């Protein structure tokens, strides 16, 4: 294998240091790209620490730290006296996710019960009818590419936020292919390698995967505690803060209104972009929770229809400042030029009768929650849990052992559940 030239490492690495963040993380990110894209195949030797340090005009410790980080990830093999080279399998394209939530989705149907993937199992009849009405409206002159989102859906979402006490225009709304894409676009726009990001612990594992991919430094605050989160945000002033103040995933807690207000205002005062994930906020058993953005319109809100309507309706959105929305749209245009127009028209139709769809979904979830809670109190009485105030998950504390081992035992009995994801 041909190594990176010792006398000209910058020729292979390109403009690796043009971003923001510590140099060792920027160097590691560039090397990671070369390995994952196959441009540094397995077995490729890398030059000794001092050579690239001189060629890149950095300290030797920068190169050592970058190599060590990639060694910990399994991308490099590094042995004293033998050198450093790309690990076997290190150059076979992007690594597969180890997140058990996503792995469960990738597995073929095999008869295993899937409480690890919470969401409506069937699309409601209103969804089918909304698609029929949307089909009737297709056929007019429309190129079909809307990186910002289909105008009618953006207008419908803006009207809904305004009705909830958050003055919003279509310019504040970007439609995405689900909330996961919305979060991915926000991380790309607002987080550079080495940036600190504040999250709850535990939190939504899909967000953690995105932050790891961005090489962010993750700090955490106890889930559901708005006072502690606001204090940590003010103290650390991270590049981004991500929180689920209403029906938190996976714990299920909802911060009191005063805590949500304090958190929103603390973020604005500290100049920290606060991403509020409201995907589950509509599923509170006691009724919809007041939007956090009502206390501070500068708050960035992520929403979705997948948990209320159906996961197959890949329609999510971001509500943010128009300047940020335009920036996100440019990122999205590179990836997919915009989502399905038919799905977005159907989503706009659903929003006209959304409250009735949501109320039926909440009633069903409350009934299933009570059935599950009764069974847990009866069958394994030494398990501890607090009744959930909403959502689709129940946070259970085992009397002994660890969650990862329990999930393996459950899987052998035909049930897939999720352990706590480490921050």
Strand content: 5-15%
Silhouette: globular
User: How many discrete structural domains?
Assistant: 3
Order of helices and strands: HHEHHEEHHHEHEHEHEHEEEHHHEEH
What is the count of DSSP helices, taking H or I runs of 4+ residues? 15
Strand neighbour order, sheet with most strands: 4-10-9-8-7-5-6
Cα distance spanning the termini: 37 Å
* Gyration radius, rounded: 24 Å
Walkthrough of the structure:
This protein is α/β, with parallel strands linked by helices and 423 residues long. The protein folds into three domains: 9-86, Arc Repressor Mutant, subunit A; 101-122 and 362-412, no CATH class; 125-355, Aspartate Aminotransferase, domain 2 (3-Layer(aba) Sandwich). It contains 15 helices and twelve strands. The protein has helices at residues 9-13, 23-36, 50-56, 60-72, 100-106, 125-136, 151-163, 178-190, 205-213, 226-236, 257-270, 322-335, 341-352, 354-378, 403-412, and strands at residues 45-46, 76-79, 83-86, 173-176, 196-201, 217-222, 240-243, 274-277, 300-304, 316-319, 384-385, 396-397. The strands form three sheets. A seven-stranded mixed β-sheet has the order 4-10-9-8-7-5-6, sandwiched between helices. α8 (178-190) runs parallel beside α9 (205-213). It starts with 8 loop residues before the first helix and ends in an 11-residue tail after the last helix. InterPro entries: Aminotransferase_I/II_large, HTH_trans_reg/aminotransferase, PyrdxlP-dep_Trfase, PyrdxlP-dep_Trfase_major, Tscrpt_reg_HTH_GntR, WH-like_DNA-bd_sf, WH_DNA-bd_sf. It holds the Pfam family GntR.
């Amino acid at each position: 294998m041909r190594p990176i030239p010792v006398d000209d490492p910058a020729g292979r690495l390109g403009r690796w240091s043009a971003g923001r963040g510590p140099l060792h993380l920027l160097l590691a990110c560039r090397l990671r790209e070369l390995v994952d894209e196959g441009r540094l195949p397995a077995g490729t030797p890398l030059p000794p620490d001092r050579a690239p340090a001189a060629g890149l005009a950095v300290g030797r410790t920068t190169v050592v730290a970058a190599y060590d980080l990639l060694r910990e990830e399994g991308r490099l093999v590094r042995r004293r006296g033998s050198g450093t080279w790309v690990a076997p399998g290190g150059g076979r394209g992007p690594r597969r996710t180890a997140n058990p939530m996503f792995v469960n989705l990738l597995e073929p149907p095999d008869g295993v019960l899937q409480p690890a993937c919470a969401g409506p199992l069937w699309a409601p009849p209103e969804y089918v009818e909304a698609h029929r009405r949307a089909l009737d409206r297709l056929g007019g002159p429309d190129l079909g590419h809307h990186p910002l989102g289909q105008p009618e859906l953006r207008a419908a979402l803006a009207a809904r936020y305004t009705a909830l006490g958050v003055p919003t225009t279509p310019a504040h709304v970007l439609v995405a292919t689900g909330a996961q894409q919305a979060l991915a676009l926000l991380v790309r726009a607002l987080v550079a390698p080495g940036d600190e990001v504040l999250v709850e612990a535990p939190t939504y594992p899909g967000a953690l995967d995105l932050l790891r991919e961005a090489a962010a430094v993750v700090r955490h605050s106890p889930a559901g505690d708005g006072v502690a989160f606001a204090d940590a945000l003010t103290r650390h002033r991270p590049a981004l803060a991500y929180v689920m103040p209403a029906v938190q995933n996976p714990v299920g807690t909802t911060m009191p209104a005063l805590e949500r207000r304090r958190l929103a205002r603390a973020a604005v005062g500290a100049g920290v972009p606060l991403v509020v994930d409201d995907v589950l906020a509509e599923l509170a058993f006691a009724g919809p929770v007041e939007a956090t953005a009502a206390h501070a319109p500068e708050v960035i809100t992520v929403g979705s229809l997948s948990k209320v309507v159906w996961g197959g309706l890949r329609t999510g959105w971001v509500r943010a400042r128009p300047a940020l929305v335009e920036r996100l749209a440019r990122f999205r245009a590179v990836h997919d030029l915009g989502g399905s127009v038919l799905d977005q028209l159907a989503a706009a139709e659903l929003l006209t009768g959304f409250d009735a769809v949501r109320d039926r979904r909440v009633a069903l979830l409350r009934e299933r929650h009570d059935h599950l809670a009764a069974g847990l109190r009866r069958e394994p009485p030494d398990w501890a849990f607090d009744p959930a105030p909403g959502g689709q998950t129940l946070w259970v504390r085992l009397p002994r052992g660890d969650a990862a081992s329990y999930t393996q035992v459950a899987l052998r009995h035909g049930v897939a559940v999720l352990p706590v994801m480490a921050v």
